């Protein structure tokens, strides 16, 4: 896949996700629990933000010739989380639940507007870094697959949950 076609696909997937969020409308709907388990749409956005920031930071390291090594000890994992503000999603030490619970707790008292702004910035960083990278670098680091896993794979998963939640709650989207 070429970088141009990948960026086009990424932007198309992003557009579909944003269109759904825009149709949800009202801020209060974005903060109602129960969309995905006990999560609200705001919680889903915080979850996506953390994963997008993670891949954006790994991409920045690649661009600057820095190395990322997944955390192998709890001490390293704690230090990573303190430094970056999100869990080391690449660490084999993480279970499936801890990172998500940690992220939701971190953003519990952050406003919806701030979560949205931070998430948009993380996504913009991914696109900007991708556009700066030569094709060889992208392929060498398997970034197309890694970006999909940290962006639109999440959009697709959560789109289904959001649509289902809207439907069972009788909320019509235009």
Explain what the structure shows.
With 174 residues, the chain is an all-alpha fold. The chain has 9 helices and no strands. It has helices at 3-24, 27-30, 41-63, 74-84, 98-106, 112-132, 135-140, 143-150, 152-168. The longest helix has 23 residues, at 41-63. The termini are far apart.
Shape: globular
Q: Average pLDDT across residues?
A: 93
Helix vs. strand class:
mainly alpha
Strand content: under 5%
The Cα radius of gyration reads 17 Å
Count of extended strands? 0
Q: What would the keywords be for this entry?
A:
mainly alpha; 0% strand; 174 residues; globular
How are the SSEs placed, and which strands pair?
Elements: H1 3-24, H2 27-30, H3 41-63, H4 74-84, H5 98-106, H6 112-132, H7 135-140, H8 143-150, H9 152-168
Helix pairs in contact: 1-9, 3-6, 3-8
Brief digest:
With 174 residues, this protein is mainly α. The chain is built from nine helices and no strands. Helices cover 70% and strands 0% of the residues.
């Amino acid at each position: 896949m070429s970088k141009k076609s990948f960026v086009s696909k990424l932007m198309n997937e992003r557009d579909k996700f944003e269109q759904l969020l825009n149709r949800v409308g009202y801020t209060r709907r974005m903060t109602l629990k129960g969309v995905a388990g006990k999560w609200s749409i705001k919680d889903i956005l915080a979850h996506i933000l953390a994963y997008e920031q993670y891949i954006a930071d790994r991409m920045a390291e690649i661009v600057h010739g820095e190395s990322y090594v997944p955390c192998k000890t709890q001490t390293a994992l704690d230090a990573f989380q303190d430094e970056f503000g999100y869990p080391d999603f690449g660490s084999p030490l993480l279970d499936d639940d801890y990172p998500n619970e940690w992220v939701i707790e971190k953003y519990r008292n952050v406003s919806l507007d701030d979560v949205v702004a931070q998430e948009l910035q993380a996504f913009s960083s991914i696109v900007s870094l991708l556009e700066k990278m030569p094709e060889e670098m992208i392929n060498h680091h398997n970034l197309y697959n890694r970006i999909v896993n940290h962006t639109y794979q999440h959009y697709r998963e959560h789109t289904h949950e959001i649509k289902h939640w809207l439907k069972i709650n009788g909320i019509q989207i235009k």
